[in-house]
Amino acid sequence: SQQGEEDPQALSIQEGENATMNCSYKTSINNLQWYRQNSGRGLVHLILIRSNEREKHSGRLRVTLDTSKKSSSLLITASRAADTASYFCATDKGAQKLVFGQGTRLTINP
Amino acid sequence: DVKVTQSSRYLVKRTGEKVFLECVQDMDHENMFWYRQDPGLGLRLIYFSYDVKMKEKGDIPEGYSVSREKKERFSLILESASTNQTSMYLCASSSSSGAGWETQYFGPGTRLLVL
After folding, report:
1. How close is the nearest chain B Cα to the Cα of A31, in Å?
2. What is the per-residue pLDDT across A19-67, written as a single tens digit (0 to 9) for each?
């Protein structure tokens, strides 16, 4: 079963705007990860946030985690055309297995 | 640079054929995974392996088997392909320890069409 659920399913914004994607999960976690998938390709790891962390930054990416609400958000600032992709959250299921959500499809319009 | 390769990007097979999907990683990772990805369903874990000759069922193992004879290679086998196995197949690997051990590294995927 899929634990992570992303919201929205699709997002279309203008280049330069910020994009925010949300992920909710059901059970307790050790960490939550975000991955990006360009069309028809494999997934690429973006960032990992641990259960004892509330916020993490990496370049133009900002991830927050609220364990009381069982939710996370991924913010991409100053979006570029190259950010067009699908974004997935993944929660650890223990034993190094990940459970992926269905993803948010992000389109950046020039 | 981390590298996971899959033997084919696109594959067309007929119902009933035996299909082999190969995955090779060059990072000396202990763990390897096979997922399938379908629209609206996200990624679902088929099988995984923690070590050579070890395998564990994932969430949807029915109709599949795997083989891991060498640490760097993890094969997914469709014993008798069916049309409902038409999908994108993704292989991934990860380390068991060290910095960033929780991260999975993915191959480019194999898009399989079963006719």
Report:
1. 9
2. 999 999 998 888 999 999 998 889 999 999 999 999 999 999 999 999 9
**What digits encode the pLDDT tens for the residues A60-101?**
999 999 999 999 999 999 999 999 999 999 998 777 789 998
Instruction: With CB atoms and an 8 Å threshold, state whether B31 touches A96.
Output: yes
CA distances (Å), B44 to each of B18, B72, B91, in order?
21, 22, 11
Q: What are phi and psi of B59, to 5 degrees?
A: -85, -25
- Residue A20: exposed, middle, or buried by beta-carbon count in 10 A (0-12, 13-18, 19+)? middle
Select from A105, A98, A60, A53 the least CA-distant residue to A79: A60
Rounded to whole angstroms, what are the CA distances from A101 to A89, B1, B57?
Answer: 6, 27, 20
